[in-house]
């Protein structure tokens, strides 16, 4: 029977790269550069690489792509509202399982099987609806915070939300 033997070799040396590498262990860890190019610098670089006709087309496409981007502050509002509108019903729905178990085993109350199903269906369904309400109830204007419950924002944003789901946009 043969045994595997390992020969000792020198550690691999990584090739030089444009990003600095930290050598804490035998494997180099590259660190990202901490600066980013601005949009104007990126456009200048594109202009150098392409002809004038292609530049005009790319600027139009870039402007159209920037219109569909949701600002980060609006995204953070949506996520925080979704956390509450999903998290609260979900936690209540999950807490009903030990409650029904305690009723059945601890207190010896005969709870029909369909009652936990209906209760969990209601709370998990409301958590699912909470995803949509969290998106729609937040203010889509980056400069305006919106109300606490977001009811006025929801009334304004529901038609836009449904149009986006049906594939119709406001542009013609």
TrEMBL record:
Protein's UniProt name: Protein PAM68, chloroplastic
The keyword Membrane appears for this protein: yes
Stretches with biased composition (Acidic residues): 52-66
Pfam family, one: DUF3464
Membrane spanning residue stretches: 82-102, 114-136
Region Disordered, annotated ranges: 38-66
Superkingdom of origin: Eukaryota
Swiss-Prot/TrEMBL keywords: Membrane, Transmembrane, Transmembrane helix
Record-linked InterPro entries: PAM68-like
